[in-house]
Amino acid sequence: MPHIADRIRSSSPKSYGMFAKAARRPDPSSLIHLELGSPVHDTPQHIKDATIEALQSGQVHYSNFAGIAPLREALSAKLTRFNGIAASADTVLVTNGLTQASFATFMALIDPGDEVILLAPYYPQHINKIELAGGRIVFAPLDVQDNFSIRADWIEERVTPRTKAVVLVNPCNPTGRVYSRAELAALARVAIDHDLIVISDEVYEYVTFGAQHISIASLPGMADRTVSMFAFTKAYAMDGWRLGYLTAPPVILEAIMKVAANEVTHVNTFIQYGALAAVLGPPEAVADMIDDDRKKRDYLVRSLNQMAGLTCRSPEGTIYVFPDIRATGLSSATLADRILEEAKVVVEAGDFYGPLGEGHLRLCFGSQPMDRLEDAVSRLSCFFSAL
Ligand SMILES: Cc1ncc(COP(=O)(O)O)c(C=O)c1O
């Protein structure tokens, strides 16, 4: 491949796990998909209406590279009120989903050879971006025995003079944990003591079931060293819209802007008016969807715990359960393959999230309506009783 850049050849192939396997099957219409985190709900009507109105009224031109001013003002108020981050509108950048926010952040901060710590089990889609920036990934385990809690001492043991950043996913995909203030404070202490940046993925910030979401940037000393990233993707069921945002200290934001402006100039102008309607709109629109997710979470957890060989904790947030399958004696990849083949349900193998995810499956309860989830549960019940 003589024409291909080294950064492409030397980075790991992009993997879509069981989704890719299911796509290659000859029987796609017989499958129930519980692997992809694409919300089942439709985007609330007031958000669509505001977007259509903006489009019809001529909001079709270049706008501010960081995002339209009223949206950044509204996001700055939301960040202050909900996240406890005193971000002015000048320190907000609107992005194409959290994916672009994280890509631009890694590109702006990571030099070749820099080490970036990921907490494992990890969200795999951050890996490629870090590699493309030339970074070296170092894994710090979460405490599997203690409900995947953060162990600051285990993170600290992995810090070297090359460590630049720690990536935090809170609420956590795939484990469903919403980290406590004490866990975040312990991580913050390591970041401050070793002069590290925390790159905080908070795409599930609103999708919690009673647990309080805390943004690490709101902790003392952290606002100056955190890039906080958010998206409209999950809570507003806007995954196809590709809308997110971040806030960062001014010098870091300027560096990120250099990447983002070269990459996409800015996010589509009229779509940002939909985002504005989402931020200013009635909170019930989000609360109703999360209430529906909570019902499905409770149903799926109860059902999985009745199946032979499975033990499932109730996730504090996100749209995923992460049941322990070790009692089946099978590896997670074998089990996910057999469930696909025999039960025609697509679930993700725990080892997709790294070796520390082994012994688990990940199932998404937020991607199907209740009746479809019930079908999946009856297929899984048959499968596990025959295993
Ligand atoms: C932890 C996490 N971060 C980022 C993303 C991607 O977000 P977006 O679609 O806004 O780019 C996802 C999507 O599933 C996710 O689970």
Characterization of the model:
- The chain is of the alpha/beta class.
- It has two domains: about 5-45 and about 285-385, Alpha-Beta Complex (Aspartate Aminotransferase, domain 1), CATH 3.90.1150; about 45-280, Aspartate Aminotransferase, domain 2 (3-Layer(aba) Sandwich).
- It is about 40% helix and about 15% strand.
- It has 13 helices and twelve strands.
- It has helices at about 5-10, 15-25, 45-55, 70-85, 95-110, 125-130, 150-155, 180-195, 250-265, 270-280, 285-305, 330-345, 370-385; strands at about 30-35, 90-95, 115-120, 135-140, 165-170, 195-200, 225-230, 245, 320, 345, 350, 360-365.
- The chain has a seven-stranded mixed β-sheet with strand order 2-8-7-6-5-3-4, sandwiched between helices. A three-stranded antiparallel β-sheet has the order 9-12-11. Strands 1-10 form a two-stranded parallel sheet.
- The radius of gyration is 21 Å and the shape is globular.
- The N and C termini lie far apart (about 45 Å).
- The mean pLDDT is about 95.
- The structure holds pyridoxal-5'-phosphate (PLP).
- The site of pyridoxal-5'-phosphate has 13 residues, from helix 5.
